[in-house]
Design a protein that fits this description.
By secondary structure, the protein is α/β, with parallel strands linked by helices. The chain folds into three domains: 221 residues, 3-Layer(bba) Sandwich (FAD/NAD(P)-binding domain); 108 residues, FAD/NAD(P)-binding domain; 58 residues, no CATH class. Helix content is 27%, strand content 20%. The protein has 14 helices and 18 strands. Strands 1, 2, 3, 4, 5 and 18 form a six-stranded mixed beta sheet that branches. The protein is globular. The structure holds flavin-adenine dinucleotide.
């Protein structure tokens, strides 16, 4: 029986385990293949988050030793923007140094048990834990609009399904969406020899770090940008600082918080995609209104009444959190979690209304704020969990974590 079981070894699971290791004697087990979600992303992808926002957070005493800079010094230079394969390597390096004892087995199910929770692992073994911290990410939450469901998977797929977009070389692909996944997929497809067209509902594409803000940064030196943008790098100038302080952000009325959340994570593309997309037609202000299969291809009708016939339709339509879609969580447990629109309502320490069941990462965004949708939110999550667990395990705490 362990005290805490963590499900998932991505940035949040690893960062949490690294923080909880500061509590001597606390029995924590962490399950899952490290960084596996990131390994499923398209080869050649670059991270959109900036350098400080790409560190996986570690306890303050180890932060410098476990940051991206230390990784680069140890394992070779990391270019910026950070390429996907270097970030995966960084996550694995972080795991080896901070959380060497990851159990790589998948958790097949989590259900309530007399003294907490019972976890069944992929090979059938069961383990028990007093508490479970779910850090399982967004895999399975892909948004697939109903109107595309009639097409078979050979003709329509989500950007989440393609670690190698090179398989579309020489074929025509219609991409739906105007956010980073859609736009970066368009660039990667174009560069690998596919004929690509992007259809996006918004009339403009929001480019992050646009000309105005670049000029502004340049003229004002580095102090002003630092005042306006927090290292978490989520949200525009000013709002970025508010979102980096969940305790302050959460004093605002719910409606305003929801509006600011939508603003902070609206579909947007990294500025470095502009040149790479020069030869890709971007149809802005259009929708795909209907689709049908025709001769083994996709016939798509757009909102202006024109048709496209393509080999494949790629949904860059993002993700929508619904913890009921975590296949490993027993329906009885999910039923006990107070939820709003698929998000769990969380208390201190990310605890759900099921005592001992904690949920981190994107599902925590409705309670904590949009930083939870990004790696940089680990800066908040780890210390918040320690602050929650500290009183419970006070006698065992290393001196730097003891509260007065
Ligand atoms: C294309 C794309 C690009 C992105 N780019 C950025 C970026 O540049 N910067 C940024 O900050 N964020 C980016 N994100 C968001 C990113 O998903 C999150 O920041 C990050 O993954 C959050 O970490 P996590 O630990 O919550 O989730 P994950 O990284 O998904 O880790 C969760 C882990 O849990 C594992 N898991 C799930 N279920 C189980 C189970 N039953 N048993 C065991 N293990 C399990 C998964 O396999 C996974 O490895 C991007 C997302 C996408 C889709």
């Amino acid at each position: 029986m362990s005290e805490i079981a963590i499900v998932g070894a991505g940035p949040y699971g690893l960062s949490t385990a690294a923080h909880l290791a500061a509590i001597p004697g606390l029995q924590v087990r962490i399950f899952g293949e490290p960084m596996s979600f990131w390994r499923s992303m398209p080869r050649g992808m670059l991270l959109r988050s900036n350098w400080p926002a790409t560190h996986i957070a570690a306890p303050a005493a180890q932060a410098a030793r476990l940051g991206l800079d230390a990784f680069a010094a140890d394992e070779g230079a990391v270019p910026y923007p950070v390429p996907l394969d270097r970030f995966v390597a960084y996550g694995e390096w972080f795991q080896r140094h901070a959380v060497p004892s990851v159990d790589r087995r998948q958790v097949a199910s989590v259900e309530a048990a007399p003294r907490g929770f019972r976890l069944r692992l992929a090979d059938g073994e069961t383990v028990e834990a007093e508490r479970v911290i779910v850090a399982a990410g967004i895999r399975g939450f892909e948004r697939r609009p109903e109107r595309f469901s009639q097409l078979p998977p050979e003709l329509v797929s989500h950007t989440a399904e393609h670690p190698d977009l090179g398989r579309f070389a020489g074929r025509s692909v219609l991409i739906v969406g105007g956010g980073q996944s859609a736009l970066e997929s368009a660039a990667l497809l174009h560069e690998s020899g596919a004929q690509v067209e992007v259809i996006a509902r918004d009339r403009i594409i929001h480019w992050l770090q646009g000309r105005a803000s670049k000029l502004f940064h340049h003229q004002m030196g580095s102090l002003v940008p630092k005042l306006l943008y927090a290292p978490t790098d989520v949200g525009p100038a000013g709002l970025s600082q508010l979102l980096a302080r969940p305790a302050l952000f959460n004093t605002l009325p719910r409606g305003l918080r929801d509006r600011l959340w939508r603003r902070a994570v609206r579909p947007a593309g990294a500025r470095w995609l502009v040149d790479r997309l020069r030869e890709v037609p971007l149809r802005l202000g259009y929708e795909v209104t209907s689709v049908a299969e025709k001769g083994g291809r996709v016939l798509a009708r757009l909102s202006d009444g024109t048709d496209r016939q393509v080999d494949h339709l790629l949904l860059g339509t993002g993700y929508e959190v619904d913890i009921a879609r975590y296949a490993f969580l027993a329906p009885g447990l999910v039923a006990g979690v107070h939820r709003v629109k698929g998000y769990p309502v969380l208390g201190p320490g990310f605890e759900t209304s099921v005592p001992g069941l904690h949920i981190l990462g994107a599902p925590a965004a409705r309670t904590v704020g949009p930083i939870m949708q990004f790696v940089s939110g680990t800066r908040y999550a780890g210390p918040a969990l320690l602050a929650y667990f500290a009183p419970r395990y006070r006698a065992r705490l290393a001196p730097q974590w003891q509260c007065a």
